[in-house]
């Protein structure tokens, strides 16, 4: 069935039907639902090339891929892209990945804007002061940020409440009697890691407990980094009785270091890790099950795609601010502070 025939069946103009299918805000919700239901009933499939010509859109969302980013050890980005792609596929929108060296990312965005191959871009892993925000605003290229930044330029963003998550996690360990608590974090020039450290420090300060700076570490979110920092903590006396860890990948390394030291997780030492809900790494099926702060990064990717579509359909970017609460899931990796510790 062609667009003209579908419009004839509905008694609507081709323009109205096209705008309803493409989510234009001037079409009423009742008309939109009527058109979508008819499209499903008649198995209507729009001609993508024709639709792009009619709307003036590229039909693609862009993202910059750092060439020094090893996706084999960075499942966070892969899961986020999976959620993003699943939602965009529903509207037959492609993802265009543009490679960039670590010091060439801003130039990549300039090339993307000049090439007009995408309608918007998705930003992730924001810095506290992120120059990409003002650059894309000045270029007039729509975007949605996964995360937050202190940059004051109005923009669309979605983030999880990292500060509250790690404050609650630290409070749980404090309630169990722990006083020497370590933190293994991502790089704190990134907003999420800075906010997690802030929540951790706030929890200890509220109880009048000094943070032991020797038990705070930051690095890449890998198993090896988690192992190395935990090993260092355990070789320092007196060592921590509990640690907060910024990813499940780091937590695997921390767990290995504890086992190598002859410690039993949940009895001799406690740990809470942040869980992005990877399909291949189930915190509840570990032995012992891992206590976590939990928020699905794939679900975040899906929602960011929806928000990007809303921005393209006319929603003002400065109205797109979503801060998701984070669940604290208590399992067997946390227990009371060991006697005499």
Number of strand segments = 12
Strand content: 15-25%
Please give the largest β-sheet: 6 strands, parallel
Task: Kindly name the structural category.
Answer: alpha/beta
H and E order? HHHHEHEHEHEEHEHEHEHEEHEE
Q: Regions with pLDDT < 50 over 5+ consecutive residues?
A: none
The residue-averaged pLDDT reads 91
Task: Return Rg in Å.
Answer: 24 Å
By DSSP (H or I, 4+ residues per run), the number of helices equals 12
Q: Considering DSSP H and I runs of 4 or more, what fraction of the residues is helical?
A: 40-55%
Q: Please report the distance between the alpha carbons of the first and last residues.
A: 74 Å
How do the strands line up in the largest sheet? 2-1-3-4-5-11
- The gross shape turns out to be elongated
Describe the structure in your own words:
By secondary structure, the chain is of the alpha/beta class. Helix content is 42%, strand content 17%. It contains twelve helices and twelve strands. The protein has helices spanning 3-10, 14-21, 29-41, 48-55, 75-90, 105-115, 131-139, 162-175, 191-206, 223-234, 248-260, 297-312, and strands spanning 60-66, 94-100, 120-124, 143-146, 156-160, 181-185, 216-218, 242-245, 270-275, 291-294, 321-324, 327-329. The protein has a six-stranded parallel sheet with strand order 2-1-3-4-5-11, with helices on both faces. The termini are far apart. The model has no long low-confidence stretch (mean pLDDT 91).
List the helices and strands and how they pair.
Blueprint: H1 3-10, H2 14-21, H3 29-41, H4 48-55, E1 60-66, H5 75-90, E2 94-100, H6 105-115, E3 120-124, H7 131-139, E4 143-146, E5 156-160, H8 162-175, E6 181-185, H9 191-206, E7 216-218, H10 223-234, E8 242-245, H11 248-260, E9 270-275, E10 291-294, H12 297-312, E11 321-324, E12 327-329
Parallel strand pairs: 1-2, 1-3, 3-4, 4-5, 5-11, 6-7, 6-8, 8-9, 9-10
Antiparallel strand pairs: 10-12
